[in-house]
Amino acid sequence: MNIGIIDADLIGRKQHRFPNLACMKLSGYYKSKGNNVTLKLDYESFEAYDKVFISKVFTDTPIDEKVLEITNVEYGGTGFFFDKAPDLPYEIEHSMPDYSLYSTWVQNKIDSGSKPKQFDDYLKCSIGFTTRGCFRKCPFCVNKKYDCTVIHSPINEFLDISKPRISLWDDNFLAFPGWKQILKTIVDTKKYFQFRQGLDIRLMTEEKVLAFKPVKYFGDYIFAFDFLGDRELIENKLTIWKKHIKKTTKLYVFTGFDRNDKWDQNFWNQDIEDTFERIKILMKYGCLPYIMRFNRYEESPYRGMYITLARWCNQPNFFKKKSFREFCIANGENSSPVKYMNEFAAKFPGIASKYYDLKYEGLNVYSKDIKAIS
Q1: Which residues of 178-322 form beta strands (DSSP E)?
Q2: How buried is 176 (Cβ within 10 angstroms: 0-12 exposed, 13-18 middle, 19+ buried)?
Q3: What contacts 24+ positions apart, CB below 8 Å, involve 307-310?
Q4: Tens of pLDDT along 142-169?
Q5: Dihedrals φ, ψ of 224, to 5°?
Q6: What are phi and psi of 161, to 5 degrees?
């Protein structure tokens, strides 16, 4: 058969940072059965294929819904079904991904002037899940169909020994009781690896920290600080973590999501203040915040503040050297960041005076005396 595979996010979004694992597994499976597989980069000429599979990760990726009604089309993914996305058939889910699926597209991008490093996840990584699921069921998350973390795939199911790194997409690895045994199998590959979706800092223990201390970890360690109400627990866990780990540690700071589903003025005011407070805490522990904005931040009267906070925090070279106020001013006296900063300060001078001038290098205890809170 002639099989067409469409990564809808590849077509519909300006940036496409990661390959679609479902697409690669579909390709790997159908190629293993002797079929011809093509990565389709348009929504035309469906009649040239016996079957066309369309996968979408992001709900806001645009697609003509009429395409989904074509008889030889099948579609799936969280972009279509959010947390109700059906699983791939077992034999496809547990097939070796086709890491060559995106090769022509990547080469064309590089030939057009894109930097090869942008495509490391396509070219240099074996990708898969050793475990699936998370017990937390956060209201903003797509991972709600599991009640706990369960075993999913052995490393050799998706390991390409020619690739130098392993990219693990587990939902909540540390919640799996057998995490230590799996970690050993990863380490035994002698390859650099990373949990690309991060690890749950709230589940960190001394045993787990010590297990990660000697490994060949690639890039920054990534955790999350989604809710200020977790501050005591997270500070306790960061104290344990920083006692042993010197590698750069980054925490996602989720903003713009109202757990009480009110989305009123009081929420937006409080959310900005809570965001600043989480940033302050992470400064203290020598960690980098990475601002993640829920899409309804666009409705906020402080939309510009959310954008400016993200621009400040998500560029470590600026964040480590400049306070929020200094960052805004560095953009120019008549710039949008200065405008947003001043407008918010006029309404909430107390918040501005408390947070605008905090600096990473001033609050970071570990840059002065690592033993101070160890």
Answers
A1: 192-195, 221-224, 249-255, 288-293
A2: buried
A3: 307/340, 308/336, 308/337, 308/340, 308/341, 309/255, 309/272, 309/275, 309/276, 309/279
A4: 888 888 999 999 999 999 999 999 999 9
A5: -140, 145
A6: -65, -15
